[in-house]
């Protein structure tokens, strides 16, 4: 009423004293003021509701694009972290200076928070990868929705061990996948479509994640859903220690057609295990970080990196992998990042096949100015390969020199974007020339070694 009285007083003052207000005019003015007050009330309620249901959008991404040429000024083909004869087994080498693909990821996220603290999160991820250097790549595009899922957390009805838990469903990468960046290799990569719950507090120092994923095995393409592999996982963290156990089953996988000369039957189940220690320093010797662990698998679980992703494995397949890597600063302007992986497997596709490989990579960065550094990388891989038909053993070598520009060299190995020029020399034992590791529908081959590769590349993430 105060606002209404004030409005009438102002109106009376502005009108000539000789003007006589009719009752109808005053009623119309009061009606307009009442309408204005109603609108203000609705606006206040809408604003209050917006505060109580806050929404936020996020955009994150990763991208790399590189141009590679050999010493004959021809496009370098067949290069990359898995270019060796053991690449089909998941054996990587250092990635620096060898990646020619144009790959991108775009992550769109919507967060919603209620006034009681309950949270919802929707995530969609688009990705594309091409080899061509041309600007118009529609015919070569592999644009794909790699993730689409929703999460709920901080729910008021949750209590006890589930008080801080997150529940999810959809198509996604498992939240706790982790990798060795310098190899461009995941340690574990669990993905598919399913549901799960994260951060169940089973004890003061024990958190666990539970999930169920489904993946398809197809002989022709990934749209074949005749055989599905169901993967149940329990991922435990005890302080710096991680214990992850996965069991899987794929009914009727044994009945699928297998590659020629494959002996034993395809696996219909499997077990996968990861034991790891994630240190808060560089192996106890210096500041930094490090991780070391062991993976083991049997049957469908013998695909140690992409858990449950290989339907061609034999029932008797067995694999064991060791990994260790770390990052530290060992001098004022020097950074150091060693990485090691080794694996032994047998009876993967054919009875009595045996594969052994070990990869060592070292990356050094010398900070010359605030924005410029020299990056050096050396890789060595030993492999002893027997696919039960032919055998080969030998070594692979790579040395890379990469002048690099970035916003701040002091920010470490994992700050992006980076703009690089790189020169790499690659060579390998003659016994590995043109050797193929035949793994059903997949194989890696190498020509002859002793080649220099030049590269221009950008890489960014945020």
UniProtKB/TrEMBL annotation:
Residues 1-22 form the signal peptide. GO terms for biological process: monoatomic ion transport; polysaccharide transport. It comes from Vibrio cincinnatiensis DSM 19608. The keyword Transport applies. Keywords: Cell outer membrane, Coiled coil, Ion transport, Membrane, Porin, Signal, Transmembrane, Transmembrane beta strand, Transport. Gene3D superfamilies: Porin, LamB type. It is found in: Cell outer membrane. InterPro entries: G_neg_Bact_CarbUptk_Porin (IPR050286), Porin_LamB (IPR003192), Porin_LamB_sf (IPR036998). Belongs to the porin LamB (TC 1.B.3) family. One of its GO terms (cellular component) is pore complex. This is Sucrose porin. It is a multi-pass membrane protein. One of its GO terms (molecular function) is carbohydrate transmembrane transporter activity. Pfam families: LamB. The lineage of its organism: Bacteria, Pseudomonadati, Pseudomonadota, Gammaproteobacteria, Vibrionales. Residues 19-53 form a coiled coil.
